[in-house]
From TrEMBL:
Record InterPro entries: TatC (IPR002033)
Role noted for this protein: Part of the twin-arginine translocation (Tat) system that transports large folded proteins containing a characteristic twin-arginine motif in their signal peptide across membranes. Together with TatB, TatC is part of a receptor directly interacting with Tat signal peptides.
Presence of keyword DNA-binding: no
Gene Ontology cellular component list: TAT protein transport complex
Entry similarity comment: Belongs to the TatC family.
Protein name: Sec-independent protein translocase protein TatC
Methyltransferase found in the keyword field: no
Subunit annotation: The Tat system comprises two distinct complexes: a TatABC complex, containing multiple copies of TatA, TatB and TatC subunits, and a separate TatA complex, containing only TatA subunits. Substrates initially bind to the TatABC complex, which probably triggers association of the separate TatA complex to form the active translocon.
Annotated compartments: Cell membrane; Membrane
Amino acid sequence: MTRTVADPGEQSDTLVGHLLELKSRMTRALAGVLVGFLAAYPFKERIFSFFIEPMTRALPERSSFIFTNPGEAFFTYLKISLLTGFLLAIPVVLYQFWAFVAPGLYKNERRVFFPVLILSIFLFLFGAAFSFFLVFPLAFQFLVSFANEEIMAMPTMKEYLGFSLTLILAFGASFEIPIVCMALVRLGMVTVEGMRAKRRYVFAGAFILAALITPPDIISQVLLGFPVWLLYELGIVLSRYVTPQEAADSESAEEES
């Protein structure tokens, strides 16, 4: 059987075409984020007030948010508006990403890839909401409890935004564990039996990770550690329905034969 060698000129044209397509898709996605940012910026104070509500409820009466340098409030509002604009533009960003990737996938890969993409976004947003509505109130209530007559709690806008986004990203990424488990099984890097055998190590590692990421209180550590372990168990259950890549390729070859 002779192997067809692609013309270098054709490869170059294809590469340039892909790069131009990528540039076009990224431009449209960024335009969607820009539109979302412009729509969110007039409501920046309301959005920030909603974002700091878990801390505001935990603060004593005399305490309030402050900023310690002239540009801190402006850049904090800018960041929160940009983040809101990105959330508003998620449908546009996902569509542009899908439109760029889909032509290079086989039909059976398209049927799997798109639901997995939507599921990963849903899990991330669910993890972020879990941290904001459940973990934040409990964690901030504990942290603010150290304030007294001599020590007043006066968090800065910049530090609160950075601290909160770190927790949100940590919880959102943790809720992607089932997707990671299925991807590793699909690639043949691990097996379902191997993941079952490592349950005890994952259980211990989940709480070690929670201790490193979350504030130093047992409540937030448990609220992150247990979901990580449970999501790992969910990943094991879902991975049972995933066919490793080598087995899938051999089945396809047999069908073609």
